[in-house]
Specification:
Chain B: Belongs to the ATPase B chain family. The complex is a heterodimer of chains A (246) and B (182). Chain A is mainly alpha-helical. The termini of chain A are far apart. Chain B contains three helices and no strands. Chain B is rod-shaped and about 200 Å long. Classes of the chains: A mainly alpha (246), B mainly alpha (182).
Chain lengths: 246, 182
Amino acid sequence: MHLPEILPWGVPYGEGFGKQMLLILVAVALIAWFFVAASRRRELVPGKLQYLGEMSYNFVRNSVGKDIIGEHDYKPYVPLLFSLFFFILVNNLFGSIPLLQLPTPSHVGTAYALAGMVYITWIVLGIKKHGIGYFKLAVVPSGVPKAILPLVVVIEIISTFLVRPVTHSLRLFATMLAGHLIIMLAAAGSEFLLLHGEGLIKPLGVLTIAGGVGMYLFEILIQVLQAYVFTLLTAIYIQGSLAESH
Amino acid sequence: MKQTIILAATEGANPLIPNVWEILVTLLGFAVLMFIVVKYVVPAFEKTYAERTEAIEGGIAKAEAAQAEASAALDEYKQQLLDARTEANRIREDARAEGAQILAELKEKAAAEAARISEQAQAQIAAERQAAVTSLRSEVGVLATELASKIVGESLNDDARAARVVDRFLADLESQSAGAAK
């Protein structure tokens, strides 16, 4: 169920600027405000806000960037990974904030945009690093017998250049949409059973409420996890582009 | 409510078909975020880290410098102690050598002195002997004359004859001793 758009006011969904897009901009504003405020003081012994900011930054910088891409050349990609993680995290968590209740990546356009951007990024990085020979490097694995090499190359092309961006975007989109639907279904179902149910069916609404609350908590975990997975995969793709061999 | 649920169900759009506006807004929003992160957030955090690292490593470097200085001073003191010890040994050695030399000199001097004294004594003895011989020579004459006159009686009282006899006797003696000396 989609609300009508905000700009132009009240036009049907899909024809203008709506709630989902507003939330994206709100997320950007929130993240930027928080981290600019946290990083501005630059004290050697951090205060609470700075500490929280540093801890968050450190998490992406070290356990995603440094560990995956490698100590030597992870630095240039920290901003991208950091922005991606918190952009997705906050947008996902909007799905669990009452009244907002919309994980923006559950609209596939957002997931496509992010995954597409990452797709272009790692291909460009690979070409920059290895020249046009990058494509050979990416699809021809070393140490494979000549007989099955063509088959392997075809599989590699499909899995790396076709399937990878699709799974990268759909994983995020599908988990968010599914969670969103489950919460909505539980809420709508409970409302229907309790208010419109007849006879013995009515009390079943209590069960659906309990289940809905459980799913709600579970959904928070999924939202954090998917932000992490998306960022981790981005780091792995970048590392793959920079690596010397397949 | 039933109406809206049914409406939602019949909306029927394929969820895999993106809304172009969503793509645009996502890209725009993300670009803005990236810009702020690249421009402000990452440099600030990295600078803080660098400063912190420098503060810690600077402290370590300072401590290392102090330690190096201390160990250099210790080495210097040890060297000085060694020098002093060597110097003392050298002085002791010199003193010993000097002592030995002084002792040797003294010994030599003493020996020379002893030699000189004994030589002197010998010369004196020789002189005394000569004197004794000389005095004996005259006395022996008298004594012998006396003895002879006692033996021969009063016959030899004549002085002139006695003197001639004594002279002849002495001359014999002389020639005898000269022959012996030759």
